[in-house]
Amino acid sequence: MVPEAPASTRRRPMTAPSTRRQRRDRQRDGAALLLEVERYRRQHGIGISYDELNSILGYGSKDKVKRDLDWCRSRDWATYVPKTARSIRVLPPGLEAIAQCFPGALAGPGLALAAAARSVSGGVDWIRVLPADIAAGPATNETVALQLAHARERLPLPAGAISAPERCFAVRVRGDSMRDAHILDGDLVVLRSTDAADRNQIVAVVLPDEGVTLKRYVPLPKQGIIRFQAENPAVPHIDVPIRGDGYDGPVPRIIGVFKTLHRGLTLLVNTE
User: Fold this and answer.
1) Pairwise CA distance, residues 13 & 64, whole Å
2) Burial letters for 7-38: b for 16+ Cβ neighbours within 10 Å, e otherwise?
3) What is the DSSP code (8-state) at residue 49?
4) Is the pLDDT of residue 255 over 90?
5) Residue 24: its pLDDT value, please?
6) pLDDT value at position 228?
7) Given a cut of 90, is residue 142 above it in pLDDT?
8) Catalytic residues, which ones?
9) Quick one: average pLDDT of 75-86?
10) The pLDDT of residue 31 is above 90
11) From the CB of residue 100, how many other CB atoms can be counted at a distance below 10 Å?
12) Is pLDDT of 119 > 50?
């Protein structure tokens, strides 16, 4: 069971610290606030609202919540995603503060990755995150490229964890069409940006009228099709005619080849 932050810690006003004890108390207050932010995000898959945070912490007004969050932002413990509802995000230093003040409260891969990314010699590689779940919504190569160019969020990985990180991007998986390849709903998948793939590689592909999806690339020239194969018997494959031989319609566009994934990770860092 996740331990609750003590009520006395969660409700104490954050006045300007003048002693070592006051500074320690303020840091603990900030960590307690961010604990609720991150706990809510992990439980519900979305950010917490000011009203919800105010209710959980027992503050008298949202202004108090904002002041305390501004203090956390001043220490690079948290940030806001611009023009986004439920926009509060906890940054790696904030996760470390939670771990120090409330050990075990957020044990899991997100916290472990944050610590690893900051402790590994050589620093951090930042991977662009496509600002949409994979397999969601219509898209083209151009719109995907534009989304990545203006991506507000990055995934921190220990330097050297993957090759050529500048050529990679990450997306969230939605659905279970690739479950037998051990890629599950909610996984954060890292891909190498490319427009070509070898047979049987797992790719992110833009399909006409379908959007971006993750499938196994299986060209079947004798049948005149390219199969984007699901790895779940309950999900049909997507067969697309090979351009030519009388077919001149829209064709799928590969945008990336699978490299690795992270499971249970909620740590997405805004860089603006």
Assistant:
1) 8
2) eebbeeebeeeeeeeeeebbbbbbbbbbbbbb
3) P
4) no
5) 81
6) 92
7) no
8) 177, 215
9) 78
10) no
11) 11
12) no
Q: Which of 14, 11, 3, 9 is nearest to 28 (CA)?
A: 9
> In terms of C-beta distances under 8 Å and separation of at least 24 residues, what long-range contacts does 78-81 make, across chains too?
78/34, 78/37, 79/269, 79/270, 80/270, 81/47, 81/152, 81/153, 81/270
pTM for the structure as a whole: 0.51
At residue 32, the 3 state secondary structure works out as helix
Question: How far apart (Å, rounded) are the C-alpha atoms in residues 142 and 90?
Answer: 31
256 closest CA partner among 215, 218, 205, 211: 205
Q: Which of 45, 43, 67 is nearest to 54 (CA)?
A: 67
Q: pLDDT per residue over 212-227, tens digit each?
A: 788 999 999 888 889 9
User: If you average pLDDT over residues 146-153, what whole number do you get?
Assistant: 62
CA dist., res. 159 & res. 124, Å (int): 5
Q: CB under 8 Å to 132, separation ≥6 — which residues? A: 139, 147, 171, 212
Q: Environment class of residue 45 by beta-carbon count within 10 Å: exposed (0-12), middle (13-18) or buried (19+)?
A: exposed
Give yes or no for a contact between 52 and 44, defined as CB atoms under 8 angstroms apart. Answer: no
Query: Which two tokens mark 156?
Result: 């921190």
> What would the DSSP string read from start to end of 215-258?
EEEEEEGGGTEEEEE-SSTTS--EEEEPSBTTB-S---EEEEEE
Return the pLDDT at 268: 42
Domains annotated on the chain, with CATH: 7-107 (1.10.10.10), 124-270 (2.10.109.10)
Residue 111 has pLDDT above 90, yes or no: no
Give, in order, the Cα–Cα distances in Å from 32 to each of 16, 37, 39, 86, 137: 17, 9, 10, 18, 37
Task: Examine the pLDDT at 13 and tell me if it is beyond 90.
Answer: no
Neighbours of 235 (CB within 10 A): 16
